[in-house]
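@channel sequence for tomorrow's demo:
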Amino acid sequence: MDQKPLVGTASDYSQKRNWLSQPETADKAVDLVYLYPSSCEDPLADTICSVDNAIMRITAKRNFAQQASAFEPVANLFAPYWRQVNGTKLSKMTFEEIDEAEWAEPRTDVYAALDYYFENLNQGRPYFLAGHSQGSRLSYMVLSEYMKEHPEHYSKMIAAYCIGDSLTRTYLEKNPHVKAAERADDLGVVVSWNTEGPANKGKDSLVVSPEAMSINPLNWCVDETPADSQLNLGSFVPHLLTPGMDELPIKADAVIDLERGTVMVMNPAFEKYTITGLTGMQNLEKVFGPASYHGCDYSFFYLNIRENARLRAEAWFKK
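structure tokens (generated this afternoon):
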């Protein structure tokens, strides 16, 4: 590969213990490869969390159950464990420090996991790539570098759901082989959004970059056409310590703020579900802003994500 040198020795993905999910029988026509968000919440761990860190593995399983499960009726679910930046260190790191750390051992592991998946597990099936937050940041590396070097793999990607981290115009300009989703059924594209409330306008957020772009997960438009909550098939809120989720009696609306490049939930009844409201950790306001729904990027639109994956898979086979 014509790429930056990989850092360190990759985790061994021939060992099943290094897979969060690897189905015994792949009985569906398409796969999903899922990269979990920041799951190392161990203040005693190093900045780069080890692949066998017990806290990371427990939290990764919870995130898998609350996010990747959206695709379960549609795809065979594959998910590697991978070394990542320790979530307890993020608030004390600059963006540049985080970026440098993610391009080190996390990138090495994710690329090695993909090598093993394509060589031994995929069996030629089309697939989705999906991530959240730090997992989406690694997915952008995969798309810009790994897939550019492996067009034979890229050609089988139905779509990449890079949710909870910004897809930017600058990124697309630097990577013209990567395309942003523009409707509900386009293929080989990046599906991306960050979810916020109006109070986050003008506030700094670790996951909202300049020139950010989003697609509306309810009406699948990329303009400011508002989507009423009636288009939402079901909104959920994830449990903090267990894999479950609670379905809400109300459903999230969605409208894109083109200036900020995020999806806004306008109903003030959802304000209790901001990331600070969910966790009670007020220091997260400095990281994500006062009205970030970062913890609910998937769950607010969980069933719509499932239906969209089904639609894109059907479009793939009609292609």
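heads up for whoever presents: The first strand starts at residue 19 and ends at 21.
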